Amino acid sequence: MKRFAAAAAVGVILTLSVSMVGYAQLNEWFKKPGGSPPVITHWFASEELHHGDTWRIYVAAKDPDGDMDQFVGVLEQVGYGRYPSNYVRIKGKNREEVRGYLVFYSTSGMGLWLAEWTQLRLTLFIQDRGRNSSNKVVLPVILSHGARQGSPPPPFSTGGLSKLGVFWFDLVESGINGDEIYPD
After folding, report:
1. Which residues does 25 contact at the CB level (< 8 Å), separation at least 6?
2. Range of the structural domain that residue 137 is part of
3. Residue 179 falls inside a structural domain
4. Which one-letter DSSP state was computed for residue 182?
5. Does residue 181 contact residue 84 with C-beta atoms inside 8 Å?
């Protein structure tokens, strides 16, 4: 009788868990990570940005296993070096295929006071739940007064894109006038 009561209690708890959490989310919890890495298929980001503007980084990616987990952004600045990596979670509905844009606010930290022609370089890739990494995409940008972002090409120019998240980097003044080049 005690075993029946214990089994019934477990059944009730599991039923309530599925009801409260929802089947789709519960399925995500039990999904095992796959062995195939995600692939960034298309990307675009303007190579010039006006001080204070929001930089849009357009990205489209697929994962055959459907377990994409997070975007990883690594920002480098001439004269300063590499900032700590930034992560943006990929929502459940986008884990198999994603198309949209990430944003970076050039006003963060000392962004508005950076020297004219400050050079930044964002390396973007995706990690899945199995910690497989996608191909890396390198996106350079120069901060310049009067610069305007270019319009995105297809497949990003067709509309219907959603904001996927924000990269937060607190920019610092490096003391370099922007004439330097990136070290290899």
Report:
1. 92
2. 39-167
3. no
4. -
5. no
Residue with tokens 């509309």: 159
Residue 157, pLDDT > 50, answer yes
Residues 4, 62, single domain; the answer is no
* Amino acid identity for residue 35 in this structure: G
Structural domains in the chain (count)? 2
Residue 79 CB contacts under 8 Å (≥ 6 apart), including other chains: 174, 175, 176, 180
Whole-prediction pTM? 0.76
Distances, alpha carbon 164 to alpha carbons 89, 122, 134, 167, 183, in Å: 8, 16, 17, 10, 31
Q: Listing from the earlier edge strand, what are the strands of the sheet with 54-62?
A: 39-45, 54-62, 97-105, 162-167
Helices (H), 22-125: 23-30
More confident residue, 29 or 47: 47
The pLDDT of residue 24? 47
Together in a domain, 105 and 128: yes
Tell me the CA distances in angstroms from 152 to 10, 47, 78, 101, 157, one per residue in order. 53, 12, 26, 10, 6
